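for the recovery benchmark. tokens below, seq after
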């Protein structure tokens, strides 16, 4: 159960399977079980043919989940709330760190925070107004729909060493990230998740909000999209954008890999690169750290 909680998996929202060292959740779990099961008997044959493909699992799993949730409520079964212990750990971690206004990422990660590479900690613990600069390699999807979506969100064209600037502004309960990709601006707002999004970070891009689990694995901070909504309207999980996105340290420098895929288009865009803080930003970070710890 600890491993499931550390991965940010809410078993009230989906089942979990661990098979040959890998963890499968939600539609991936029913897909693997279908492949492992024998297609003998009417129920097993239906289960096999419905969930044997990832597309079938992505489409039909939300429907099955809806009926399961309704049945549990009718039966009066209470939620397990396996992530509540994560919240307790977070509270203990923040208290012991004696941080007056901890970052959203520090809040969500809790005790895992101390295991992050130093450059990743610096990125997410930066004081308001911090600017990071660097470069990235961009790759775009090939389908016409992927190109259209990339154009709507104003992602740069493909290229190596595309200039990148990230500016982070912070308030008491939110972080505002402005990404400048070769003069193309991309803004988002990050907050602590509540309700269905509890123990996740919520990142809003315009009318879309994504609930994202932060999972530390092999010294990489992985971003795993769990759910999304349009304004306040939940959207189908099988249509949710995803991809292999993570942050890590290389030669003491903050590195990132972002991949955005969509079920109907495949790859929309991917970009990977590095960022470093400006000298003035690091001076501000040191000043903030001194104020937090009360040192001189």
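predicted aa per position
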């Amino acid at each position: 159960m600890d491993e499931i909680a550390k991965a940010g998996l809410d078993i009230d929202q989906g089942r979990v399977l661990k098979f040959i060292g890998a963890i499968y959740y939600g539609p991936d779990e029913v897909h693997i079980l279908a492949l492992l099961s024998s297609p003998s008997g009417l129920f097993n044959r239906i289960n096999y043919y419905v969930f044997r493909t990832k597309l079938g699992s992505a489409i039909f799993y939300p429907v099955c989940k809806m009926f399961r949730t309704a049945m549990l409520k009718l039966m009066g079964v209470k939620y397990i709330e396996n992530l509540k212990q994560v919240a307790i750990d977070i509270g203990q971690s923040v208290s012991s760190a004696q941080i007056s206004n901890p970052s959203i990422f520090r809040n969500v990660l809790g005790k895992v925070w101390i295991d992050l590479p130093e450059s990743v900690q610096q990125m997410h613990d930066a004081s308001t107004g911090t600017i990071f600069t660097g470069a990235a390699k961009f790759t775009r999807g090939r389908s016409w729909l992927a190109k259209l979506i990339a154009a709507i969100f104003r992602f740069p064209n493909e290229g190596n060493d595309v200039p990148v600037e990230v500016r982070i502004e912070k308030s008491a309960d939110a972080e505002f990230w402005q990404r400048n990709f070769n003069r193309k601006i991309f803004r988002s707002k990050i907050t602590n998740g509540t309700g269905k999004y509890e123990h996740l970070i919520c990142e809003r891009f315009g009318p879309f909000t994504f609930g994202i689990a932060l999972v530390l694995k092999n010294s990489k901070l992985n971003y795993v999209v769990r759910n999304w909504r349009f304004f306040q309207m939940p959207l189908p999980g099988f249509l949710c954008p995803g991809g292999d996105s993570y942050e890590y340290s290389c030669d003491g420098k903050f590195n990132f890999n972002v991949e955005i895929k969509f079920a109907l288009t495949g790859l929309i865009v991917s970009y990977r690169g590095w960022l470093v803080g400006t000298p003035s930003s690091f001076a501000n970070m040191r000043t903030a750290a001194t104020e937090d710890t009360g040192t001189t």
